[in-house]
Amino acid sequence: MTTTLNSDVDRAEFGREWEDWHRGHETRRADSLGFFAITGLHWLGRDPITLPGAPGTWHLGADGVVVDLADGESLTLDGATITGTHAFGEIAERGSVTPTFTDGDIAGAVEIAIRGGHTILRPRRADHPFLAEYSGTPTYVPNPRWRVAARLRPFDAPVPTEVGAAVDGLTHVYDAPGVLEFSWRGEEFALTAFEGKGPGDLLVLFTDATSGITTYAANRSVGIDAPDADGWTTIDFNRAVNLPCAYTDFATCPLPPEGNRLPIGIEAGEKTPLARVISNAELVAPGVSA
What we know:
Strand order of the largest sheet: 16-15-14-13-12-17
Oligomer: single chain
Organism: Microbacterium trichothecenolyticum (Aureobacterium trichothecenolyticum)
InterPro entries: DUF1684
Protein name: DUF1684 domain-containing protein
Number of strands: 19
Radius of gyration: 21 Å
Low-confidence stretches: 281-290
Shape: globular
Helix content: under 10%
């Protein structure tokens, strides 16, 4: 196996491309109703609950999630206005629907999601303090040496793989199409890959020797382009990013499979965030309890 990818790389151009990519990544995750706008994580059952800062009374009914909206309250979903009592119907595992609302001139939303067989509600508000406080995520300086050639060793059929989650009592199951094998400084490594965003693309969840020191302890992820006809692709660890659980207690992110805990230090990609939201909605530095 070879790792020769970088002999002809224009380092200045490589850095500019990385900066453009990371700037876009930061912009997307700091969207006004994105993950940084989540104000709480609520486990839904048969007993009705209300959500601070969001309209309606919510419960699980025969037709899935049901909301009862009082006079003057409304939600919007796919361009349609919801009033009164509304059932959202069946939602698939790892699926979600996110109706929106307005509170005066403040935009909001309620994410309805199924995670590990559980129904969760996560209200979002554009005036969440974390959005205003967020100043970006520190990173390692991008370096082409962290681009490694990798070959997919596919399984005969995708293997359902159970992993833990960032919250207690929850597990996730993802289909793994195979294992990505690569070498680094003469050592051979293998990472279980999950399906990525595009057709044939892959996603790897991992930790390494920097985890809990300079990078977030629980996990990082890196997206990987679909392998070619011979199974070859590239893992660019410069594009390793934090999952939402690095920033908030209100995330249910998956943890890496057991074999994806690398003994080497991947000194590339995103580092530990400078602040996070804990379950009492305070902003704290990582590792600080309240």
